[in-house]
Amino acid sequence: MAADDVTQLDAAMAERELARLAGILNRANDAYHREDAPILSDAEFDALRQRNAAIEARFPQLVRPDSASAFLGATPAEGFGKIRHARRMLSLSNAFTDEDVADFVAGIRRFLNLGPDSPLALTAEPKIDGLSLSLRYENGRLLHAATRGDGETGEDVTTNVRTMAEIPQTLTGAPAILEVRGEVYMSHADFAALNTRQSEAGGKIFANPRNAAAGSLRQLDPEITRARPLRFFAYAWGETSEPLADTQSGAIARLQDLGFPTNPLFRRCDTVDDLLATYSGIEAQRASLGYDIDGVVYKLDDLAYQDRLGLRSTTPRWAIAHKFPAELAWTLLEGIDIQVGRTGALSPVARLKPVTVGGVVVSNATLHNEDYIAGRDSRGGPIREGRDIRVGDWVQVYRAGDVIPKIRDVDLARRPDTAAPYQMPAHCPECGSPAIREPGDSVRRCTGGMICPAQAVERLKHFVSRAAFDIEGLGAKQVESFWRDGWIASPKDIFTLKDRFGPGQPRQLKNREGWGEKSAQNLFDAIEEKRRIPLARFIFALGIRHVGETSAGMLATHFGSWDAFRAAMHESNDPDSAAYAELISIDGVGPVMAQSLITSFAAEATEIDRLAALLSIQPAEARATDSPVAGKTVVFTGTLERMTRAEAKARAESLGAKVAGSVSAKTDLLIAGPGAGSKAKKATDLGIEVIDEDQWLALIGAG
Q1: DSSP character string of 424-491
Q2: What are phi and psi of 348, to 5 degrees?
Q3: What pLDDT sits at residue 361?
Q4: Is domain 633-699 given the CATH code 3.40.50.10190 in the classification?
Q5: For residue 345, which of 466, 465, 430 has the smallest C-alpha distance?
Q6: Dihedral sign for Cα atoms in the order 505, 506, 507, 510
Q7: In the prediction, which pLDDT does 460 show?
Q8: How, if at all, do strands 394-398 and 435-436 pair?
Q9: Given a cut of 90, is residue 500 above it in pLDDT?
Q10: Who wins on pLDDT, 38 or 390?
């Protein structure tokens, strides 16, 4: 589905899609940031994140902790020291159309309560397609350099950075503490020359300049970095002991004065039309710049306004990246393969004659589901003007979708006479069980459950995934290998692995190909360490359909302990029971998720209990904070006069409060401004404390 299809999703479909997107984007994120071997273009990744954001905007209660909206990079790779950033390195939200840019500026005006005629300057500069880098200077000397990493912690590349001629080692007239952020990149000419040298020496050939730059900076041998032609543009800053300037444009000029290269196409703009004209001008120069860019970044110029707008979880409200359109290509659809996921979903994938799209060789594309192949949306309406997709078709591929690209259109004039309408299989290609499409579901699902090898393996992969048990040394490849050879068939088998294949056993892990005594012991130790697991992670690890990380966290917080949660699941079998009523009353838990939980526990109670008996499941902990509103549910109503509603909500959430849109028995506090109506009356009737805006500001220490 495209991003604009989200209105067709119900909550259950949305949760499944968010889970799918999280898995895809986690893999893509690691491939890009850790392995310097991206599996999709920036346009593809951006559009996938755009779809994720659109779903989250419509279903905010389903936002997952591993959501694309929380991505800041990837965990630092092994082999490098780690440096914790004094201030997080943030990513940017994206705009893809002129309307998106206008909405971005309008949103800033609303947040700041500025009228349409009030001056509002922004800056525009090319978005460099390179590797993010943070440079920390203390008393004018370069102390250390770090990659973005996961946004909180990056890789220590100080020694390598000291070999780069464009990065100053000392500064004159700089603040005592200054963190400079920017992008490491490689020019097209230097990239071509490097690949020529690599080819002549029999070395690695890089796919594009971004990969070459990232691979060159992230070398364990700094002499390799020294021999690579790396360049740098400064565009931001982290921690500073004193402000660089009052404006973004002033700060960039200050960085240039300190000796940092800044982009010569940087511009200050006063209107949306100015921004769009700058975008068009930069796009027109794109091919002749001599280095890769993938869009234009807009930032609010006034730094005081930036502070007022603040941050979302991983992106600033005061900046956005206006991305260039994705590229297209035509190629032959040679076949359609079916992949089976953890929940049994049958996903069709187009097998394409390889074609280069946006500098990347594409051989597969997502086909979403049988409706998409047939040329209709989930409501039966036409897409592609009703043109279906058939094996043998010439199809238009674009790199602006999922990890594997999407098919935009079909050339009916080139369709062979032998091409037949595609029929989704009625049975699972992995286990032969019936594949059924339930009413309201967009996909067919295998009914084989754990007898289906694809589902069994995918559930085991989910169990050890980063957001679940995250067992070091036991990743997807190891799970597949152990499952294939019969060493693990279900999650509980992981925790008996040492008893069955450890020291003194007839077959030992240390004797397995690719393993040794040390690596085997390391895995046993890692498994032992993860016997102690937080309740929320355990619930998520069970892989129950419709239960994502956010849902697992809510359930853990509500029930507190494993025993209470388990008892509630069994007692909720009766839809007329108090336990069932309590379950569906939890914010974010509806009848669909509740039924999935109940069904899973009824069907797999013995297996779950056996697993739990091998673990120490830790009770949920309340969020610790000194804020007077932490943990409270607050509602704003009426007109706020000293801050906008968006500012008030953001401030409350930053203090640990939950902001609800309506008054209920769970509400702790109502902040009522002039014009408060039914919400204030309902709060009074329920005995909920009602205060005005001045009292609210005094309460949170902002009066």
Answers
A1: --SB-TTT--BEE--TT-SS-EES-GGGSHHHHHHHHHHHTSTTTT--TT--HHHHHHHHHTTS-SSH
A2: -80, 140
A3: 61
A4: yes
A5: 430
A6: positive
A7: 93
A8: unpaired
A9: yes
A10: 390
Residue type, 628: P
Q: Residues 87, 238: contact at Cβ < 8 Å?
A: yes
The residues that are catalytic are 127
How large is the average pLDDT for residues 498-503?
A: 94
H/E stretch holding 605: helix 591-613
The two structure tokens encoding residue 256: 């240039």
Give the 3-state secondary structure of residue 277: helix
**Residue extents of the structural domains in the chain:** 3-71+326-414, 82-323, 449-530, 534-618, 633-699
- Residue whose C-alpha is closest to residue 407's, from 358, 445, 351: 351
CATH architecture of 449-530: Orthogonal Bundle (1.10)
CA-based nearest residue to 690, from 665, 670, 674, 663: 670
Report, as an integer, the average pLDDT of 327-352: 90
Output the pTM of the full model: 0.49
Q: Considering only 38-42, 119-123, 673-677, 693-697, which range has the smallest mean pLDDT?
A: 38-42
Q: Are 260 and 234 in contact (CB under 8 A)?
A: yes
Dist. CA 480–CA 632, nearest whole Å: 45
Cα distance between residue 659 and residue 393, in whole Å: 51
Q: 137 with 346: CB under 8 angstroms?
A: no
Query: Which of 372, 322, 326 shows the shortest CA–CA distance to 347?
Result: 372
How much is the pLDDT for 574?
87
What are the phi and psi torsion angles at 492 (to 5°)?
Answer: -65, -25
CA 438, CA 444: separation in Å to the nearest integer? 7
Residue with tokens 């071997």: 37
The distance of Cα 231 from the centroid of its chain, to the nearest Å, equals 28
**What H or E segment, with its residue span, contains residue 695?**
helix 693-699
pLDDT tens-digit map of 174-202: 999 999 999 999 998 898 888 888 888 87
Dump the DSSP string for 370-400.
HHHHHTB-TTS-BSGGG----TT-EEEEESS
The neighbouring-strand residues paired with 396 are 330, 409
Note the residue count of the chain: 703
CA distance linking residue 646 with residue 110, whole number of Å: 8
Task: Give how far Cα 291 sits from Cα of 209, 210, 287, Å.
Answer: 8, 9, 8
How many other CB atoms are there within 10 angstroms of residue 339's CB atom?
Answer: 14
- Confidence at residue 33, expressed as pLDDT on a 0 to 100 scale: 54
CA dist., res. 266 & res. 249, Å (int): 8
Radius of gyration of the chain (CA): 27
CATH 1.10.150.20 is the classification of domain 534-618: yes
Q: Which two tokens stand for residue 76?
A: 């630092």
The bridge status of strand 319-323 relative to strand 141-147 is unpaired
CA distances from 283 to 183, 280, 319, 324 (A): 19, 5, 19, 8
Burial 247-269 (b: 16+ CB within 10 A, else e): bbbebbebbeebbbebbeebbbb
> Within 13 Å, how many C-alpha atoms sit on residue 629's CB side?
27
- What is the CATH topology of the domain spanning 3-71+326-414? OB fold (Dihydrolipoamide Acetyltransferase, E2P) (2.40.50)
Fold of 82-323: D-amino Acid Aminotransferase; Chain A, domain 1 (3.30.470)
Q: Which residues pair with 407 in a beta bridge?
A: 397
